[in-house]
Amino acid sequence: MSWILITLASSILAALVSIFDKIFIYRFAQSSKVLPLLVGILQTSLGLALLIVLPIFNGNIFNFSNSNFLSGILFASLSGILFGISGNIMIRILHTNEVSRIVPITQTYPLFTIIIAYFLFNESIDVSQWIAIIFIIFGLIIISINPFSIYNESKFKYKIIFLLILGSFFMSLAYATTKMSLAEIPVILAHALRELFLGLIFLLFNLRKETFSHVRELWNIRSPGIRIVGFNELLNANVALLLMVWALSLGPVSLVSTISSSRILFVVIIGLIVEKFSNTSLLGEKLDRNSIITKLLGALLIVIGIIGISLNQSV
């Protein structure tokens, strides 16, 4: 299967993850740390379970006789840490902002990934692909900043933008270190280690007595929010992350990370549909004409960029 199709499938699932995350935050979360703590609990448990089960099916998966095996383990673990830091920043800020504006800024990481890929992997990008990437980045900026809006409340504070760009930079490093790990260890092992260390970072940043009390309260009242998070993290997020690792094992890191930024296209489309046709607001999205136009315009530029990359990359 083409790595482009695998990346797009991962992006669609990742978009659904963002939508369900916002539904939980908007409808059920008492604080910005509740969802990250639940993510930490579930992903750490899943990562540990995979590391315990994998040797049963493949006794040679922990190949310590390979001199480079430990470096693969370290890079996969580091990618999980970086991914956890980036994800924690995004989810915390998502608590009080629109998902269709937060996710786009975090998807600017292809710009950083390209720079890293030049230095670490000697990957080349031709002129047409650079133009396509510029289209993608410009589309993300339009959706994020909404330059046509006349309302002050629609503009982000500079601190938030800086934090999201920082999270995007960590995301680009996570892609690069994942790619480096895949040269030494199998895809499924890299995925398990990413899950484990991602979860541990979420626990480290969010495991507080008050936050744990909120989570326990949701569990005790059998809140639908617990089922939403469970389904979202154990199925959607897990499969999306696994597909992304698989795509990175097959394709160049710069272009895989760029195409994965199509996540915002799906976030915008799904978010508008959900908010438009739900009886009550599920996401807290603005549906005024200017917001819809800028989001769709940005999404269109992203589509053009993705087509440009796909047409110029042999698969």
Order of helices and strands: HHHHHHHHHHHHH
Query: What percentage of residues falls in helices of 4 or more residues?
Result: over 70%
| Tally of DSSP β-strands | 0
* Low-confidence sequence ranges: 148-154
Task: Give an overview of the whole structure.
With 315 residues, the protein is mostly helical. The protein is 77% helix and 0% strand. Helix 2 packs antiparallel against helix 8.
Topology, pairings included?
Blueprint: H1 3-27, H2 34-57, H3 69-94, H4 99-106, H5 109-121, H6 127-145, H7 158-181, H8 187-206, H9 209-220, H10 224-250, H11 253-260, H12 263-277, H13 289-311
Helix pairs in contact: 1-10, 1-11, 1-12, 2-8, 2-10, 3-4, 3-7, 3-8, 4-6, 4-12, 5-7, 5-11, 6-13, 8-10, 12-13
Key words describing this protein structure:
single chain, 315 residues, 77% helix, mainly alpha, globular, 13 helices
